[in-house]
Amino acid sequence: MNESIGNTSIGEAIARNHRLLLEHFFEPLLHRDVQIKLLNGIRAVTGDIELQAKLEQAWDGEVNEYDKEVKTVLKHVQYASLYIELARAADAGMKHVRAWAFINHASLMVGEILEQSVAIQSRAEVEKRSHQNSQNGQGRNKSTLLVKEEAARLLENLRPEAGWLSKRKVVTELEKPLEKFIEQNSILTPRISNIERWLTEWLRGDELVNPAWEKNKHVKAR
User: Fold this and answer.
1) 9 pairs with which residues across the strands?
2) Domain enclosing residue 173, as ranges
3) Are residues 105 and 183 located together in one domain of the fold?
4) Is this model's pTM higher than 0.90 or not?
5) Which of 25, 98, 156, 169 has CB 3.0 to 4.6 Å from 90, enough for a Cys bridge?
6) Nearest Cα to 104, choosing from 2, 17, 7?
7) Is residue 136 part of a domain?
């Protein structure tokens, strides 16, 4: 077998596989320094079977901070990288058939590794969005609570002498002060443009606003 198959040389195949691992595994999930350290360790032992065995034992006993999924894929990456470097060593020794055997096996492994890496990144992105949505929801809940507390306060402080005659009157009278409160506190939700809907709902049954309404309404309020 020749040094190249078709338009691809062994050297190009080696470089391509290393680049794929860097771009799709090390950079998004770990760091390029991890790849550099791994390759330096492998290149130091490719000429010695016993040293290779010790390196593989070291991988098996390796302790790191990576999560379980990443650790599993990293193990495959370590062996794929070993086969790539064994291909390099065989090619340098003019053993091209052996070199192609190593690089072909490594290429199959790299393809599987990329699929696993994409899956991990996709799950991480979903978890990130879920966490962000949760935080956004908590922020909205906090903002809404602030507006409810202010509405209850205004029901008390702006109460007509005989009490509020109707919920519609409350909405009309509280719109401006609530609008000012929302603007001053940079609150995005609830929107003041929807005050008739949300304040009316709160007056009917909210645990903060409804008691303030019941306490301050006119005896003949509607």
Assistant:
1) 4
2) 158-216
3) no
4) no
5) 98
6) 17
7) no
